[in-house]
Amino acid sequence: MRHFLQRMVGSRSSNDHLVSTTSYPVRVSARSFEDETLPDSGGVEPFDTPEAAAINRARLDHLDSLGLDLSGKRVLDVGCGVGHLANFFVNKGCEVVCLDGRAENIKKLRSLYPDLAAHHITNVESESLSTFGMFDIVFCYGLLYHLENPLAALRNLASVCTELLLLETLICDHTLPILRLEDESLSSNQALKGLGCRPSPSYVTLALNRSGFKFVYTPMYPPEHKDFKFQRKDNLDAWRDDHPLRSVFIASRTRLLNPNLYDLLK
User: Fold this and answer.
1) How far apart are CA 207 and CA 202, in angstroms?
2) Which residue has the higher pLDDT, 263 or 46?
3) Span 175-179, mean pLDDT?
4) Which of 51, 63, 28, 94 lies closest to 189, judged by CA?
5) 16 contacts: CB under 8 Å, gap ≥ 6
6) Distance (Å, rounded) from C-alpha 75 to C-alpha 138?
7) What is the pTM of this model?
8) Can you tell me the distance from the alpha carbon of 191 to that of 185, in angstroms, rounded to the nearest whole number?
9) Strand 135-141 versus strand 161-170 pairing type
10) Direct distance between the N- and C-terminal alpha carbons of the chain, in angstroms, rounded to an integer
11) Residue 179: partners with Cβ closer than 8 Å, 6 or more residues away
12) 118-128 as b/e, with b when 16 or more CB fall inside 10 Å?
């Protein structure tokens, strides 16, 4: 049948709009995710590598430098992993609820941080967060790019956020609001079903605004880590010079008069 169609297309070459389907630029490798096995060091070990510790320090030092009103808030830590970032808010007198999609991550969190009493296994793409109540701050660092339906997740996060949504994610370098889908491994710090994404900064900004946030900002200066320091090329790169590209976003219900932030909405 395919050869017949190709012959038909060739016989009507005078019609410019007819093109052989074999010439369409699709380069997708087949994958059977359910048949894969956990890779070496695919448990909770990735959360404690030197690289993970370095980027966590850069993330939290940077967040602390922004001068946001974070003390004494009710905080939802979404995609908490094993809980390493939650103590940032605990130390500011916050009430923290931790969520993660993997049981093994929550189990490790319980052993590492027994004082973090509120922790739940939840898929933020498909399970309503309203069960946990409302939160002044939703903290979502290092999760969005592990999701296959990021807009659905952002709408879910917005539905329980009364003040600020703090977001850090891998991105792809492009000015249009587009999304790259990316295969990921079975490791405990990767996508639940093996499919993640790399959104462009415009995608994240548009999605946050359309999810209900009237104000969306990015920091004037990025964290002190190579992943955040890159020149825009508008070429769809998600990885450059041997490291991924990352950005930070702050979505707010009210206007923030903060010199450390740049307004992304016109």
Assistant:
1) 8
2) 263
3) 98
4) 51
5) none
6) 6
7) 0.89
8) 7
9) parallel
10) 52
11) 150, 172, 197, 198, 199, 200, 203
12) ebeebebbeee
